[in-house]
Amino acid sequence: MTDLASTRVLLVDGSQLITEGLRLSLHRTHCFRVVGIAHTVAEAARSLRGTLVDLVVTDFDVPGAGPLRTVRDTAQYRPSARVVVLSNADSPSWARAALDAGAVAYLLKTSPVAELLPLIAAAVRGAPATIDARVGSLVRLPARMPPPASLGRLSAREFDVLAEMAKGMDNARIAQRLFISNDTVKTHVKAILRKLGARDRAHAVAMVLGESSEAFVTT
Q1: Would you give the DSSP letter of residue 1?
Q2: C-alpha to C-alpha distances, 92 to 124, 160, 161, 170, 190, nearest whole angstrom
Q3: What are the boundaries of each domain within the chain?
Q4: Across all residues in the chain, what is the average pLDDT?
Q5: In the 3-class helix/strand/coil scheme, how is 71-91 assigned residue by residue?
Q6: Fold of 151-210
Q7: What is the pLDDT of residues 157-174, one digit of tens each?
Q8: DSSP label of 12
Q9: Which positions does the record annotate as the modified residue 4-aspartylphosphate (predicted)?
Q10: Could you write out the DSSP letters of every residue in 17-67?
Q11: Which residues, in sequence order, are bridge partners of residue 138?
Q12: CB within 8 A of 190, min separation 6: which ones?
C-alpha cells in the first residue's frame, strides 16, 4: 500500500479536540482520507466492522476497555490495516506493549504535526516499526511468542509497574521511580499477578517477556 491519496483512515481518541485536529491536519495534506472518527472502543469496533480502512491512528488507552484494545480489534476486523499509536506518555514499556499488540508505530501527541505526518506516511508505506526518538531506544524487541491475551487487561499504570518489575526493582524502588506509595505498588502487583494468572513476580515477567527481561531495558 503506497498510494497515500487513497489511504482510508480511522481516527480513535477519547478527545474530540485531538481527533478534529488530526482530521484537519490530514485533510490539508491531501494525502489521506479520513473515513471515520471514534471516541470510545465500542465506536471504534463498529467503525472497523462496517468501514473499510487502511490505517488506524489511535490513542494508547481509548475509553471503554483496557489499553490497546483498538489495536487488537483492528487485527481482528481489518487485519490488512496498519495501526499507529499516538500517546502522551514517553514510556518505553507502553511503546513495547503497543508494538507487541500489532501497532507499527508509537508516536507522541506532543510532536509537531510537521514531524508526525511523515512518520505516519512512512508507516503506511510499510516502514519498519517506529518509536518516537524521545521515548528512548528499546534494547531488544524479541521475536518470541506473543504476550498472553490477558496483558491487554492491564491498566497503563500496571504496564509501568510490570516494566519496573522486569528490571528487577523491588516495591520500594518502583514506588520511588513512579512517584507512588508502596501500598499502591503492592496493589498494582497483586492486580498484575491476578490478571496474568501468574504465581509470583518472576513468573509474571517470564510470561510476558519469554523469560527475558531485556526487552524492557532502555538506553
Answers
A1: -
A2: 23, 9, 12, 19, 22
A3: 7-131, 151-210
A4: 80
A5: HHHHHHHCCCCEEEEEECCCC
A6: Arc Repressor Mutant, subunit A (1.10.10)
A7: 887 788 778 766 788 888
A8: E
A9: 59
A10: HHHHHHHHHHHHHTSEEEEEEESSHHHHHHHHHHS--SEEEEESS-TTSST
A11: 218
A12: none
For residue 121, what pLDDT is reported?
84
Q: Which helix (H) or strand (E) holds 173?
A: helix 171-178
User: From residue 41, how far is each of 15, 33, 45, 60 by CA, in Å?
Assistant: 13, 21, 6, 11
| pLDDT tens digit sequence for 133-142 | 777 544 334 4
CA distance linking residue 177 with residue 191, whole number of Å: 19
Query: Residue type at 126?
Result: G
CATH number of the domain located at residue range(s) 7-131 in this protein = 3.40.50.2300
Closest to 183 (Cα-Cα) out of 163, 194, 191:
191
Q: What is the mean pLDDT of each run of 10 residues along the chain (219 residues)?
A: 73 92 83 91 95 93 82 92 90 82 89 83 79 60 47 75 77 86 92 87 71 36
Cell numbers describing residue 210: 519469554
